[in-house]
Amino acid sequence: MHGARLAPTPPPPATLGEPEPGEAVAPEWVLYVDLDAYYVSVERRERPELEGRPVIVGPPPTDEPNRGVVLSASYEARAFGVRSAMPVRQAARLCPEAVWIPPSFPKYERLAHEVRELLRPHARLLVPYSIDESLLLVSAPHAEAARELAVSVQRELREKLGLVASIGVATSRTVAKIASDRAKPGGVLVVPPADVASFLAPLPVRAIPGVGPRTEEILVGHGVRTIGELAARRPADMMRELGGFARELVDLARGTPHESIEERGEPRSRSADRTLAEDATSADEVVPVVRHLAGELARALETEGLRYGAVVVAFRWSDFDRTQRGRSLAAAREGSEALVEEAERLARGLWAEERARRRRAVRTVSVRVERLSERSQRQVSLDEFRPSRSARTAARGP
Ligand SMILES: [Mg+2]
User: Fold this and answer.
1) Is the CB of residue 339 less than 8 Å from the CB of residue 311?
2) Exposed (0-12), middle (13-18) or buried (19+): which is 248, by Cβ within 10 Å?
3) CB within 5 A of ion ligand 1: which residues?
């Protein structure tokens, strides 16, 4: 067969209004909005003399005892190798001249709330991922229109709130997130569906969310350094070391990320995760990260006026196996302290269980909250709806 293979052009709709069956509707785009060095930017709004200096928000390393982690580092501090979630003592060694600022979460929450109020009218749906990252679902007829939207969102954030955002635009969350990382600092990067494979191909595998140093090492062992090389592999070749993660990675590399409708749509759960710079071999290394993530989640829920009814903590281990522990609460809860304590309890339980059997190290930590409800709703105990054990047993009878 010769010539271009074109699908037959559908006839124009007879009437305006509701789309005819088969007629294309404006495609949906994901704008992944990530505020640059958020806590640092908030502090600099009040202290402009810190502009251009290495600034770290976190518990100052002089406080004893200190097992805290860096919450946010300015780009000047990052130039010294400082990263968020890094132990403060390590950060202080890397960048001794840094200006340390203890965090003031109420201030960050208030501004995050203003950010969401500013973003909301731009989107059909707004899904906050953390205090400084949100996903916007928007309709736009083509990539250029989606870019214009992103640029105007960015301008508004700068002019009205003095905040710099990096925005990735794509038709999937994962690609939009990767694009937002490549757009930092302060850029807009649009990846139309037809360009996904060529956009991803030259990037290092580390650009994929969830791929840390250990996964990278395994992939390099297979001769895979870039996402393009990953796309050319068969998942089966890497299953032994990476398990099911191998298929997720290859599918993403080929431009078809695993994303459920729920992940793009109405949030039923929220999670925060972090791949550690080095695999953790003690609970003392893991627990501060768990507490940090739980605190971030609690603040995101606070900003949106949500309660949670279940908490789950999951570890991905050095061999890529993943285990989790969760707890359903009798009644929906709110507030940071309860969530942080619960997450720590679950994390310590997971850790103890692992120590009793094997001694793997932790590479990725994740905290998730489920059964989200609006704070304005009446407090309903889950137990009211759950049949008692005896009732369930009886119902299963012959
Ligand atoms: Mg950010």
Assistant:
1) yes
2) middle
3) 34-35, 132
Give mean pLDDT in consecutive 10-residue pieces for the chain, a chain of 398 residues: 37 39 65 95 94 93 74 94 90 95 87 92 84 90 95 97 96 92 95 92 92 88 96 92 87 80 57 84 91 90 83 88 84 87 95 86 90 60 33 34
Is 241 among the residues known to form the active site? no
Q: Which domains does the chain have, with CATH numbers?
A: 35-162 (3.40.1170.60), 201-253 (1.10.150.20), 267-383 (3.30.1490.100)
Report pLDDT for 183: 96
Torsion angle, CA of 237/362/340/350, rounded to 10 degrees? Answer: 90
d(CA 244, CA 333): 33
pTM (2 d.p.): 0.65
Sign of CA dihedral 338, 339, 343, 346: positive
Instruction: Calculate how far, in angstroms, residue 133's C-alpha sits from the geometric centre of ligand 1.
Output: 6
Size of the chain in residues:
398
